[in-house]
Design goal:
single chain, 268 residues, alpha/beta, five-stranded parallel beta sheet, 5 strands, globular
Length: 268
């Protein structure tokens, strides 16, 4: 528990002011860059790629270019990259803060190229996929990649997606994002997502239901956060830089249904 409490205390301290929150992101990005460049492309990213290619892209691989929204695009725009390799899409990548790590993005793209068959990429997409990965390899910045691939990167500090056009997206995707949405605005947030999508559109969300602080302490249970009352959790444990809404599977399903979504598949 000492590591758990220590991680919580550090996150709380970094949450105190805008300046400390900015320092947290700067320091965190530097540490993540160092760690990810040292460790290389994680296998879990390959598994995420396989999910997109094998389970979702079958709905997007015919007809004109589809509009994709990646919510919480994070460090390396992974979902948008995979969808661009597997299908003709026009991604919009939205986030509340700029956590982009260009050197890591390039490394992951380079290490992905020999594994295109492993992620299930159709043979007919291999040539165009290699062209895209080469664009990433020779680019000097994210902005150059956006220009070459017609990607749209949007920073929205409000987190409301209010500047995005409604009835515009065929597919919405996120990974390890929705568990960080303030539970007080969760239903309006998912309602807004529904309005952004075209009729018949699809979405896939990978939601991490674990207590994220338990990652810092191997001895901590994965749902330790439910040992605390709501008031105790919010006052003493939860933080603005590591906010976790503690929403679990049944409530997620209810939120999506209330917004108007129909469940296509579900895996816990």
């Amino acid at each position: 528990m000492l590591r758990y409490v220590g991680a919580s205390a550090v996150a709380k301290a970094f949450s105190l002011t805008p300046a400390t929150r900015h320092s947290y992101r700067v320091l965190g990005n530097e540490l993540e860059t160092w760690r990810r460049l040292r460790e290389g492309l994680p296998d879990r990213y390959i598994q995420r790629a396989r999910l997109l290619v094998l389970e979702i892209v079958k709905y997007l691989d015919s007809g004109p270019s589809r509009c994709v929204l990646e919510v919480g695009t994070g460090w390396v725009h992974w979902e948008s990259l995979i969808l661009s390799l597997a299908s003709d899409v026009q991604p919009t990548l939205v986030d509340i803060v700029d956590n982009r790590l260009f050197s890591v993005f390039q490394l992951y793209a380079a290490e992905l190229e020999p594994q295109l068959a492993r992620i299930g990429l159709p043979n007919e997409r291999t040539a165009s996929a290699k062209v895209i990965l080469n664009i990433v390899r020779v680019a000097s910045s994210f902005e150059e990649v956006y220009s070459e691939l017609s990607w749209n990167y949007v920073l929205d500090a409000s987190g409301t997606m209010r500047g995005l056009p409604e009835d515009s997206f065929d597919f919405v995707v996120s990974s390890d994002v929705l568990e960080h949405i303030d539970r007080n605005i969760l239903q309006p947030f998912i309602d807004k997502m529904f309005k952004l999508m075209r009729p018949g559109g699809l979405m896939i969300h990978d939601i991490d239901l674990r207590d994220h602080l338990s990652y810092y302490d191997p001895r901590a249970p994965s749902k330790l956060y439910y040992r605390f009352s709501g008031a105790t959790w919010d006052r003493w444990i939860n933080s603005r830089v590591q906010y976790i809404n503690r929403v679990q599977d049944p409530e997620w399903l209810s939120v999506f249904r209330q917004a108007g979504f129909d469940l296509v598949s579900h895996d816990v």
